[in-house]
Amino acid sequence: MNFNNQLLIALPDMQDNRFKQAVILVCEHNSDGAMGLVINHPIEGIDTNQVFSELGLSQPHDNLQILEGGPVNRSSGFLLHHDNQHFKSSINLTNNLTLTTSNDLLEKIASHQFFSTWHFILGYSGWDKGQLEAEIAQNTWLTCPINLELIFDTPVQDKWQKALSLIGINDYKTISGIAHA
Question: Domain 6-174 class?
Answer without folding.
Answer: alpha beta
